[in-house]
């Protein structure tokens, strides 16, 4: 129910010490050797998170991403590829865009996976990218394709940087090599409606997608399970309750939902 709490009360109750919860989350991540680097990165950023959250209710990564367990070597393209590492960047900001100030204004995260394809005389360096974006920009005119407020899609800023490199292929580097080639093509769609994820939930989601064994072991520890459940209750309980309201659904789904 959207009016379950007076305006502002839910945010004060649940979000006031969110930066502290991220610190507790980093401690819980140390229960698995696979996520020690994740914990270390969050710990290094803790002072920065505390400052930005208390001053403007924002939490975002700096220039470097936070390491996370990479995907298993399963179903990879091109064949023969080896996964080396993965990282996540996030930008979370609390706001009242949904006219309920316990909901986020921005809930972005981007995942980058790095790997290599060994060749006889060298390597091809590979990257994969996927992300969740918040469509907060007021377009004039609005985009032709529907952009749900929070949506999942492929690609990201890191992918754009990679594709601009001189040795990126398919690209101009193949102009001097005779013959026909084929490759995978990727566009910006589909933009799939997605529930908002705070940094805690985003990291938990990414770990689960990359390595279910690590994810289940983490969730089997009381300290990790407790902090993730608290994050779900804080963000998703009011969000999914709010979906009973049509205006709320329209703001989340955007032009996908017919009025």
Task: Provide a compact summary of the structure.
The protein is of the alpha+beta class and 259 residues long. The protein has helices at 9-15, 18-29, 36-44, 46-56, 157-163, 199-210, 212-219, 222-242, 246-253; strands spanning 58-60, 66-68, 82-94, 104-119, 122-134, 150-154, 192-193. Strand 4 (104-119) and strand 5 (122-134) form a beta hairpin.
Fold and architecture overview:
The protein has 259 residues and is of the alpha+beta class. It has one domain. 37% of the residues lie in helices and 21% in strands. The protein has nine helices and seven strands, in the order H-H-H-H-E-E-E-E-E-E-H-E-H-H-H-H. Strands 1, 2, 3, 4, 5, 6 and 7 form a seven-stranded antiparallel sheet that branches. A hairpin with a 2-residue loop joins strand 4 and strand 5. Helix 2 packs antiparallel against helix 4, helix 2 crosses helix 8 and helix 6 packs across helix 7. It is globular.
Give a quick set of tags describing it.
9 helices, 259 residues, alpha+beta, 7 strands, 7-stranded antiparallel beta sheet
SSE blueprint:
Layout (H helix, E strand, L loop, with lengths): L8 H7 L2 H12 L6 H9 L1 H11 L1 E3 L5 E3 L13 E13 L9 E16 L2 E13 L15 E5 L2 H7 L28 E2 L5 H12 L1 H8 L2 H21 L3 H8 L6
Antiparallel strand pairs: 1-3, 2-3, 3-4, 4-5, 5-6, 6-7
Helix pairs in contact: 2-3, 2-4, 2-8, 6-7
């Amino acid at each position: 129910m959207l009016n379950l709490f007076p305006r502002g009360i839910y945010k004060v109750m649940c979000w006031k010490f969110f930066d502290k919860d991220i610190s507790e989350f980093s401690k819980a991540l140390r229960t698995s050797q696979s996520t020690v680097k994740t914990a270390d990165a969050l710990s290094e950023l803790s002072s920065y998170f505390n400052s930005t959250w208390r001053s403007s209710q924002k939490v975002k990564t700096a220039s470097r991403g936070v390491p996370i367990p990479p995907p298993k070597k399963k179903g990879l393209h091109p064949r023969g590829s080896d996964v080396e590492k993965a990282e996540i960047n996030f930008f979370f900001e609390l706001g009242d865009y949904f006219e309920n100030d316990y909901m986020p204004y921005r809930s972005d995260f981007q995942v980058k996976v790095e790997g290599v394809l060994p060749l006889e005389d060298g390597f091809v360096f590979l990257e994969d990218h996927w992300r969740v974006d918040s469509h907060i920009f007021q377009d004039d005119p609005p985009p032709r394709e529907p952009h749900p407020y929070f949506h999942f899609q492929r690609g990201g800023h890191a992918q754009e940087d990679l594709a601009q490199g001189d040795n990126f292929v398919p690209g101009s580097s193949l102009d001097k090599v005779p013959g026909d080639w084929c490759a995978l093509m990727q566009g910006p769609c589909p933009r799939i409606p997605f529930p908002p994820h705070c940094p805690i939930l985003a990291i938990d989601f990414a770990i689960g997608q990359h390595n279910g064994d690590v994810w289940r072991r983490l969730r089997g520890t009381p300290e990790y399970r407790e902090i993730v459940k608290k994050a779900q209750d804080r963000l998703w309980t009011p969000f999914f309750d709010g979906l009973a309201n049509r205006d709320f659904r329209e703001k989340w789904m955007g032009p996908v939902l017919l009025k």
